[in-house]
Specification:
Length: 412
């Protein structure tokens, strides 16, 4: 619609497979860097005190100060470098292979060195204490200093010569594994694409709204106009300088004529215009300085309201649970289905809609599905049913053990 309006932003956290585990909502204009700091306590509570966790994120969260906060909180980091940096010489690269958890072999051209990133003074207290480390982290070099963060810079070179810089504090991982894990972050995009298509991720879950915080600071639209006036005034000064130079050149040419005897007067209007242009620039700069960059929302957009977030978070939790359940079933199904890498989820969506029978026999709840659309699909589902039956799961709030099967296929 090409219409920009107030909105909320969501920060999603996924696991190493890209499956979602947490989502945070933020007010408009909140940066990913700010949200990373906010999510750390909840993330630590979720994974436990002694479990090691690497936070992988893109350049939207790039901030050495945030890096220091993450490391001080006992987490590890993995991110692309942002900004200017010195490229690695071609001779520093070496070829290396990495066997991924799925058995595939990934080949990389990698170079590595250490890099120091300056941390602003107010953030220069990010020294780890032993109480903040998990046991697995005591054996590694403490890479955070009082004035900078010291990290590994691993550079991946593409066949066309392009260099991609990756930063991490993990000294226990090979450079190839770091490159693989950084690229693996894109699996998180799979959730968004799939959930939009099959889980109504972008649906409007509630029409209810709530008042926005009128004291929340937001960008002042007048500031942009003031900065535009400064730019226009600078252009006016440049134009006035050009006009004065042209006036001087004209006077020099006139002075060179024989009848003028080497004398000519510079048009005084050009100098006056230049003085006026400088005055305009000074006034525009003062007006810009006097214009605050941010103002309370209540002054800019009184009565602003936002969509109610609680119901959206509840529905997000349901979507995440359903998606993660489907992911777990897909991993179990793939060994039984030759097209499992490409069609496991499609087969599961069919299985979820298959009719069937429920029967209780001697403390066992038998779930018998009708055959699928093709024999090979039914056979794959029968293999999945056997694995689920082997877990000896009981139906909630009962003592009935669940047994799954597909009609016409052996149960063992």
């Amino acid at each position: 619609m090409r219409i920009a309006g107030p909105a909320t932003e969501e920060t999603w956290v996924g696991d190493s497979e890209g499956d979602p585990i947490m989502v945070l909502t933020a007010a408009p204009s909140k940066s990913l860097a700010a949200e990373l700091s906010r999510l750390l306590p909840d993330l630590r509570a979720l994974i436990g005190d002694d479990r090691r966790c690497t936070v992988v994120f893109d350049r939207g969260g790039y901030s050495p100060a945030v890096f220091a906060e993450i490391l001080a909180a006992g987490f590890d980091i993995l991110i692309y470098h942002k900004g200017t940096w010195a490229r690695s010489p071609v001779e520093d690269f070496s070829s290396t292979d990495y066997r991924a958890p799925d058995g595939s072999i990934q080949s990389y051209e990698l170079a590595e060195r250490l890099i120091n990133l300056a941390v602003p003074a107010r953030h220069a207290t990010a020294q780890h204490s032993p109480a903040q480390h998990s046991p697995a982290q005591h054996s590694e070099e403490d890479l955070t200093t009082a004035a900078s963060v010291r990290l590994r810079l691993i550079v991946r070179r593409s066949p066309d010569g392009h260099q991609t810089p990756i930063l991490t504090n993990r000294t226990d991982l090979s450079a190839a594994e770091v490159a693989y894990r950084m690229a693996n972050r894109w699996r998180q995009e799979n959730y968004f694409k799939y959930a939009r298509e099959h889980f109504a991720l972008d649906a409007l879950d509630s029409y209810a709204d709530q008042p926005d915080d009128p004291t929340r600071l937001v960008p002042n639209p007048t500031k942009a106009h003031a900065l535009g006036q400064v730019a226009a005034a600078r252009a006016g000064v440049s134009g006035a300088h050009a006009d004065l130079a042209q006036a001087i050149s004209t006077a020099v040419a006139q002075a060179g004529r024989p009848k003028n005897h080497g004398k000519a007067e510079v048009d005084p209007t050009a100098a006056q215009d230049l003085a006026a242009a400088h005055a305009d620039l000074a006034g525009a700069k003062k007006a810009s300085r006097d214009t605050p960059t941010h103002l309370p929302l209540g002054q800019i957009r009184p009565g602003s309201r936002l969509l109610e977030t609680e119901r959206k978070l509840v529905t997000h939790a349901i979507r995440m649970s359903a998606y993660n359940t489907e992911s777990a079933l897909a991993r179990l199904l793939r060994p039984h289905y030759s097209r499992g890498e490409d069609e496991a989820r499609a087969l599961l969506r069919e299985a979820f809609t298959l009719p069937g029978d429920l029967e209780i026999i001697d403390g066992t709840l038998h779930v018998r599905l009708d055959p699928a659309s093709a024999p090979r699909r039914s056979k794959a589902l029968a293999g999945l049913c056997a694995e689920l039956t082997d877990t000896q799961t009981t139906y909630p709030d009962t003592d009935l053990v669940l047994a799954y099967s597909v009609k016409g296929h052996p149960t063992a």
